[in-house]
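Entry 12.
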Amino acid sequence: MSITIRPARLEDYEALCALFDELDAFHRLARPDFFRPFDGPPRTREQVERWCGGPGSTILVAESEGEVIGLAVLLTRTPSAFAGAVLRHVIELDNLVVRDDWRSRQVGSHVLEAVMQWSREQGATHVEVGVHAFNHDARRFYERFGFAPSIDRLVLAT
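Predicted 3D structure (tokens):
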């Protein structure tokens, strides 16, 4: 099994949408009070083009035998305006998903290694990822890689 990690191209759009569909369906199932189906594609072609075109953002894809089997969306976060905050250059790992039939085969680890490399090349001091409380598998995955909790966001409906 050979896995290649590369920047996404616009020709990958349909495969990216299929992966976003898997990710979004998982979130809708777990939290229908937060997530609903899209009225169209899961991400617009324009949005994907903006992410791929940077600067400060990218989509990395995992590929095997010409098939896109995973993706990561990376965004540069604006530094905090709080005068008491240490200046950090943060890359936000906005989404990481591996196609269902490729999970538990180290694809996510390969993608995350590439995420860290891309972030270092951007001069990042930190990579951050948000994980919903229901997603225990994702949290364990990131913690095994060395990520540590930073903040818990609590929500109350009004």
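Annotation: The mean pLDDT is 94. The helical segments are 13-30, 45-53, 107-121, 136-145.
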